[in-house]
Amino acid sequence: MDATYVIVVRHGETHWNIEGRRQGHLDSTLTEKGRAQAEALSQRFTPDSYSAIYSSDLGRAYETARIIAAKTGHEVIADERLRERNLGIFQGLDGNEIRERYPVEYEQHRNGGADHAVPSGESFRDQTRRNMLCLEELTQRHAGETIMAVTHGGVLSALFRHTLAIPLDAPRRFSFKNASINLFKCQDGVWGLETWGDIAHLQQLGALDLSYF
Question: 13, 39, 63, 84: which one is catalytic?
Fold first, then answer.
């Protein structure tokens, strides 16, 4: 089977990124800089760059995808399986608030590993399974094509680990930037990494956010 290429993009900067709040399945709008990041990102692509664009249905990713698609003329197809990890009771809170309100749950989250789920949330393993089911389905649907998926940092982390066979419980020693271009290749069910963290289009925008969610 011919290889399928997947351009995976993280959404632009949000207000909660700046505040250090856990977004998860809640949402925060793009900042002015986040919209500028998405506009700069859109200039990297032409109508022939990809055949279809998929997005998480959460607003921060969908708005980023919409800005890109406005340049290339594609229809954005939303899929909730491309959502970030559900962080349950931590969502909407910053690190200090989580530690103060939920000290026990915070320690369990830090030390519980990939199978631990925050109350009312999901585990990293469950998130990864959900994300990969979607991405693998899309590569089969678009075999031999190049497609785009606009999503979140946690989804990039899941796909990166899956591709490079990094255990989900291993400490994260890599970063993913807002509005970055990350190119993956899938052939006969085997994933490979072609490009990671391409932000050449953002250099004129100044310092970049490195927050996780």
Answer: 84
For this structure, is 84 an active site residue? yes
DSSP string, 18-40: HHTB--TTS--PBPHHHHHHHHH
How far, in Å, CA of 29 to CA of 80, rounded? 18
Q: What is the pTM of this model?
A: 0.93
Q: What is the pLDDT along the chain (213 residues), one digit of tens a residue?
A: 789 999 999 999 999 999 999 999 999 999 999 999 999 999 999 999 999 999 999 999 999 999 999 999 999 999 999 999 999 999 999 999 999 999 999 999 999 999 999 999 999 999 999 999 999 999 999 999 999 999 999 999 999 999 999 999 999 999 999 999 999 999 999 999 999 999 999 987 764 444 433
Rounded Cα–Cα distance for residues 183 and 197 (Å): 9
Domains of the chain by start residue, with CATH: 4-85+123-205 (3.40.50.1240)
For the stretch 66-70, contacts whose Cβ atoms lie closer than 8 Å and that sit 24 or more positions apart, written own/partner, are: 67/35, 67/38, 67/39, 67/41, 67/42, 68/9, 68/38, 68/41, 68/42, 68/148, 68/150, 70/42
Tokens matching residue 211: 């927050």
Is 13 one of the catalytic residues? no
- d(Cα 111, Cα 131) in Å, to the nearest integer? 23
Tell me if residue 66 falls in helix, strand or coil.
helix
How far is CA 133 from its chain centroid? 15
